[in-house]
Structure formats: structure tokens, C-alpha cells
Amino acid sequence: MAYVYDEQNIFAKILRGEIPNKTVLETEHALAFHDIQPQAPVHVLVIPKGPYVCYDHFALEASDAEIVGFNRAVGEVCKMLEIQPGEGGDGYRVISNAGENGVQEVPHLHVHVLGGRWLGRMLK
Ligand code: 5GP
């Protein structure tokens, strides 16, 4: 089944500069910005600049440069926000929701980077 990307989704509009955002980091392949409804003291969204719906779409169809660039940006964000364990922070959680079961609200791949408080146990 082909992936169908909706050019009118909110993050596409953010990438086109049609909706403002509080940018944390921008690189050739990624944009990181504060979530509008933060669930933790640190709640940043990192998105690839390409039109990818979800994680598997990106991982299977993006170029190696895009994949490396995006992942590096996620790492940079953790470093910049000083949430990486043992190096100025107490750790973080990276989450990417996909589809209905994953409760994905915005159909442009994004990872949530959460930190700044104890986040509780998610999986047993
Ligand atoms: P999802 O459920 O798709 O994984 O999460 C989407 C996230 O995008 C939510 O945490 C929501 O608060 C955030 N969000 C939705 N609209 C906007 C927006 O216009 N600006 C920003 N910065 N975040 C948004």
C-alpha cells in the first residue's frame, strides 16, 4: 500500500513557514520545535523536512542522508536541552506515534522528545 502524504497537515504548514513555531534547531534535513501543548518541562518535536507520514514510511523510503540527518538532529536536540543521562541531565524519552492505534494526530512523521521530569514507566 502506498503512503499518502497530506500537504495541508499542520507540520507541512510549519515547514512552509505558514504557521509560526518556537524553533530549537533547524538543519538541512530536520526541524525541531517546542510542542504547543507540552506534557513535560521539555517537550520538543523533531520532524524531517521531507514529506513522510510516519516512521516506517521514512525508514523505508527516505535517503540515507535524510535518515542520518534526522537522527543526528534528534541527538543534537537531546544534547542542546541537556537532558541526556550523565551529561547534564537525568534522561529523556523519544516517542513516535503512528496511525490510529498509535494515536497519531498530525500525519507528518515526528518524534516527541520528552524530559525534565520523571516520566513514569510506560512498558512492562
Ligand atoms: P501526535 O499525537 O501526532 O504524536 O502528536 C502531535 C503533537 O503535535 C501534539 O503533542 C500536539 O500538541 C502538537 N501540535 C499540534 N499542533 C501543533 C502546532 O500547531 N504547533 C506545535 N508546536 N505543536 C503542535
From TrEMBL:
Write out the entry's keywords from A to Z. Answer: Hydrolase
UniProt cross-references to CDD domains, sorted A to Z: PKCI_related (cd01276)
**What organism is recorded for this protein?**
Thalassovita autumnalis
Give the residue ranges of motif Histidine triad motif. 108-112
In its UniProt entry, what is this protein called? HIT-like protein
Coiled-coil stretches, from where to where?
Answer: none
EC no. given is 3.-.-.-
Q: Which residues form the active site?
A: H110 (tele-amp-histidine intermediate)
The cross-references to Gene3D superfamilies, in alphabetical order and at most eight, read: HIT-like
Q: Name one Pfam family in it.
A: HIT
Q: Please indicate if the UniProt record lists Hydrolase as a keyword.
A: yes
Per the database record, which ranges form the HIT domain? 10-124
Write one Gene Ontology MF term.
hydrolase activity
Against InterPro entries, the record matches this protein to: Histidine_triad_CS, Histidine_triad_HIT, HIT-like, HIT-like_sf
Name the PANTHER family on file.
HISTIDINE TRIAD HIT PROTEIN
